[in-house]
Specification:
The structure is a homodimer of 752-residue chains.
Chain A: H1 5-16, H2 43-56, H3 59-69, H4 79-94, E1 98-120, E2 124-125, E3 150-151, E4 156-164, H5 170-178, E5 187-191, H6 199-206, E6 211-215, H7 218-221, E7 243-244, E8 282-285, H8 287-295, E9 322-343, E10 348-358, H9 366-388, E11 395-402, H10 405-408, H11 410-418, H12 420-426, E12 427-433, E13 439-445, H13 450-457, H14 469-479, H15 501-508, E14 512-519, H16 533-539, H17 545-563, H18 571-604, H19 607-611, H20 633-654, H21 663-673, E15 697-699, E16 707-709, H22 711-718, H23 722-751
Parallel strand pairs in A: 3-7, 4-5, 5-6, 6-8, 10-11, 10-12, 12-14
Antiparallel strand pairs in A: 1-2, 1-9, 4-9, 9-11, 13-14, 15-16
Chain lengths: 752, 752
Amino acid sequence: MKIKFNLVMFLFLIVNGCTNSTAVKTSEPEIDLVSTFDVSLDMENQKNLESQFDSVLDPQNLDKWMKHMSSKPHHVGSPWSKQNAEYIAKHLKSWGFETEITTFDVLVPFPKIMNLELIEPNKVTLKLNEPALKEDATSSIKKDLLPGYNAFSSDGNVTAELVFVNYGIPGDYEELARLGIDVKGKIVLAKYGGSWRGIKPKVAHENGAIGCIIFSDPKDDGYVRGDVYPKGPYRMEHGIQRGSVLDMPMYPGDPLTPGYGATKDAKRLAIEDAPTIMKIPVMPISYADALPLLKALEGPVAPDNWKGGLPVTYHVGPGPAKVNLHLEFEWKLRTAYNPVGRIKGSVYPNEWIMRGNHHDGWAQGAADPISGMVSLMEEARAIGELLKTGWKPKRTLIYAGWDAEEPALLGSTEWVEHNRDEIREKMVAYINTDGTGVGFLGVGGSHSLEKFVNEVSAEVLDPVQNISLQERNRARLRVNGNKDAERKDLRIYPLGAGSDYTAFIHHAGVPSLNLGFGGESGGGSYHSIFDSYDHYKRFSDGDYKYGTTLAKVNGRLVLRLSESDILPFRFTNMVDNIATFIESNKKLAEDVTKKTDERNNLLDLKAFTIAGNPKKTYLPPQRLDEVPSFDFSSLDAAFVRLNASAWNYEKALSKLQKGSLSAAKKSEINNILKNVDQAMVSDGGLPRRDWFKNMIYAPGFYTGYGVKTLPGIREGLEQRNWNEVDTYIQEVAKALDRAAAKINMASNILSR
Amino acid sequence: MKIKFNLVMFLFLIVNGCTNSTAVKTSEPEIDLVSTFDVSLDMENQKNLESQFDSVLDPQNLDKWMKHMSSKPHHVGSPWSKQNAEYIAKHLKSWGFETEITTFDVLVPFPKIMNLELIEPNKVTLKLNEPALKEDATSSIKKDLLPGYNAFSSDGNVTAELVFVNYGIPGDYEELARLGIDVKGKIVLAKYGGSWRGIKPKVAHENGAIGCIIFSDPKDDGYVRGDVYPKGPYRMEHGIQRGSVLDMPMYPGDPLTPGYGATKDAKRLAIEDAPTIMKIPVMPISYADALPLLKALEGPVAPDNWKGGLPVTYHVGPGPAKVNLHLEFEWKLRTAYNPVGRIKGSVYPNEWIMRGNHHDGWAQGAADPISGMVSLMEEARAIGELLKTGWKPKRTLIYAGWDAEEPALLGSTEWVEHNRDEIREKMVAYINTDGTGVGFLGVGGSHSLEKFVNEVSAEVLDPVQNISLQERNRARLRVNGNKDAERKDLRIYPLGAGSDYTAFIHHAGVPSLNLGFGGESGGGSYHSIFDSYDHYKRFSDGDYKYGTTLAKVNGRLVLRLSESDILPFRFTNMVDNIATFIESNKKLAEDVTKKTDERNNLLDLKAFTIAGNPKKTYLPPQRLDEVPSFDFSSLDAAFVRLNASAWNYEKALSKLQKGSLSAAKKSEINNILKNVDQAMVSDGGLPRRDWFKNMIYAPGFYTGYGVKTLPGIREGLEQRNWNEVDTYIQEVAKALDRAAAKINMASNILSR
């Protein structure tokens, strides 16, 4: 699934509005933080180990494997997906991993009938498919290829007038209301972008629409960005973005087995009872096919920030453009194949370090996901080489290739759900990768690992510029005037959804990371048939320098997690980030109040009416209910306690003499440390979606990929559910207190 | 020439960066400001007079006159321009004005040869003209029509590679330098917008380009904005924006007679010595003709904010697109006809109130300028009706129709230059109009008249909404969250250039105003053959409700200026505005310093290099010279004195008993009041352009229309001429002191 990390970060900054927020002052006196490993790792040995690891990495392997694995369409249920799973398993096995292929039987619809036609004011039959290009060897493959479709659209045969709804997110419907336009009984035409795609039909349905068409606009994803394929990397006129529209912000994974594994014999919901399946037909189209639809629309001219890059005046409608949209799917269980290889830990076999990357793609899927998969494989192979020298990891290493990520994060989610108790007991950390490219290292994840990640990114060199990955990122932050550019550890972004870490961090509460390179790959092959080996070679990491560097980064993360006497969780970074989350939520509460007062005041003054253009319908916005004042004091107090616990742990750590801890104490401490993040999950979960249990992060209910920090509070404010705000201020406070208690326990053992 | 007032205001806010500046606190205790007229006008009589004035206004006259005057092309030198001048004169005469047509002989080039061809990589002959449309009656007229050209382009026949330079303003060349691209020996292709058009060839020439092509991009002026003509009002694909490129920010008016009238026998510069004539050939084209040029460009993809609305990937070049541009002009003196009508003042014949609007257009010019001209004519007619009742104005009223505004503000500038001494002695105020449309009253001008204008706009009702013009503007400010929405008097914007007020305010220092309606007209007929009666009727003020309302506003301004015992200049508003100008200049000094330090620091850290994409040329920006600290204390001190004088005048005024002033005293005071604004001009003028003598406002040397407040200081900062900043801090301080001295003189007489 994979979206570019800079987009993720951007969404995060936008959604959480905290680009300029000032952190709650962490009031403890600064003490010199010791390196994560000063007290817990023999760094000389470790560096030797890592040098050996680096020395065997070979970009040619990535090339060879990518060429093979992306040579045919390999979505879940396809022969080539199964082949790839077996290919991965075979390799893992050959490198010394105990390997099995775990399977789940998951619902994935494939299209049977896909028709879309403009029937009024003129009849236009659309192309609806992507052409073979002589410059792209796999673009001519038709066998086993899924056409451009949205998985988990409903079946349907609907005919109605079109309404152009911009990105189709809630704010766009407020604008439509002001334009006097209602989508009830209409089919909406939405641009890709502005949110995860599944939000568009969900909100369209909530507003009464009976169908949804999503197109890639050239302004966001096409010739406006740069030269299109095959001249350049950007989306060509007939490129279609496939993708899932399952309501994953409610719960990802198999819609029929919520919260438990989709094993052969699992009890399943009836399809019609599955709440996450879209209620209306949804279909993606290219911008070449969107053009005649947009041309046929009349009604008001679209607001300026709705306009795209096609050479027409964008109108909103409704009509006179009328379309028939007819979709039927084959609703069948498909077998997802997750190859999983293990190396049992020699000292702490019950402490698991897990790596994962999905292997299924929408079509040939070279960038997404094979680029990340082959990096993971090379990393596993290098660990295999270390095994050959007689070395053994102290902790258990698990390497997985997930199937069926694209339709609904199915492979990973079912695996987590099925093994949840054991995961919560044993897993120390989950490290995810997905498609990766060229440029800057992007890291998202649990902030208890922020310091740890920075220690690695400060050591690994950028393969092109002769400088550490961290310093290259820092240079970019400096050029962009980011206030955090001089922060010793660069911030990692909080995780929303969008790849296989989702079930680990949001459902099980396991500390997770997500890593990849990007920012200089450009491109618009995402989820089209042009996400091919040829495209990747020409426009992305064609020499696999960055893919190999990613293996170096992840290899270090895995090896240090595995070998540390004391697990490298560090909490002062975590509290500093949580402080910014609290501040930005308080700021949001202020903004919501201010905006409410301002709008209602303008309505009292009839300012919208007086300033309105009498020749154009643009109604005043709705009056807003008053915002109560919120009492953040319990959260502030809990934060103070958490902050103290984090700094006390640092103090205890700094006083520790190397080698002074008994094995039993180490074990005791590690058992606590790995549960600090888990302590911040709450079984009750979030409102209307209790699958999401993490109180600190969640994907937005109305943004999809985009993360919401302290989501119970934030979405209460955004959705104006004031009592939820109060409830979740308490819930987050409790979560922080649970974490503080764990950290204090660890400190006490250290100081004993 | 006329640009929409909201654009002017926007440019002002951008250029002067003062949207959020906080004013210097005007430290005087608030006193209740009396109405401008409480002590100086018999308001009952005046209201009767104004009611009579209003009662005769008839929209049908505007319709009839517009239809006649815009029925043929009427640029300076055309038969229809002369006819229109005589038509205006005839009417003024018939309404009781002593009327003459004053003439000047001014240089205006007409095109002889206009060729533009793409010659590489493929040959494309461009259309270069606008089609006749059946929906537009005058669009088929070819007789006397000037084609799409830029007046005061040089002659030239050049062949070179193209470089796309965005808007072609100085910042764009900094970006080109970072892209490693030089325009030396190239022909630049620039979008209209971002500055006045004449800036583009001027800056291109400064950077070594040998030709300049300017096109209307559909993103700024075409289908992206709305439906194009004839379906809607916006610029259709072949519409061409004509216009002058004379270097008017140096000096407007006849390039051969700088600073004096272009009379028959005037001494003239040789054409080759005229510094304001462009040094390279320049030509405007439509977006249909720009498309093949843009398609043929390669090189780097244009930066995001350079991209327009055509369906191509915008590349910068240079080449492979190569063009031949061949332009030759007939350089001839043409006679400009300024009809000028006077009604001699019955009490103060040597105090002049002047109204003006140009009558020449680029083609049929219905909106620009006839819409404003016919409003002025109806206003003059209504005054003629008042004369019939036996009423006579106390002061002399002068109504003018300016010729040759479009090529260089020629008619008005030569008239001002020729009559400068008498104008400076006698003129109380100049009130300008130009093209006008539908929507909101826009007012720019001298801030000594701000309170006066507000008193009028608070009384005249919007013709559609049943509310005063002032309250309608206030509602819009409220909706836009403008911090000045609740200011008692709404701000008027400071004047740059762009219409016939230029010579009055910037050269002679006469208090000036510029008024018009806009904001709801939409449209893209500007300077094309589609600025027609048919277009105006369908899409703008087709029922002339706003044109008639404009006559009400200007009629009141003229009648109150004429009848007041004490002229309605009020200075507390003026100082409040000057305070914001000072603050925004100080802020600019801070910003320049900060930006300099930040950039040089990033260069020291090599951040640009480290963060740069190794596959793309994007050089670090140049190191900036250090910014000295500036001493604003003399200006602050002068401001304190000016502020005190303004409030003392208010106090003196508030204590005045009605009817207590002798005629001699009134005369003495008025003589002083009308010179306060003039006191702020300085004979030395601005650096490198001493024609511009106003120390408070000027059009930007590198923005054209866009105003610069305290221009000597501001442009010193922007151009990094630090010694100019110091010099003009002193010059402005002296100007404020001269004004304060005048105001104090007036207060002393009042209190005597």
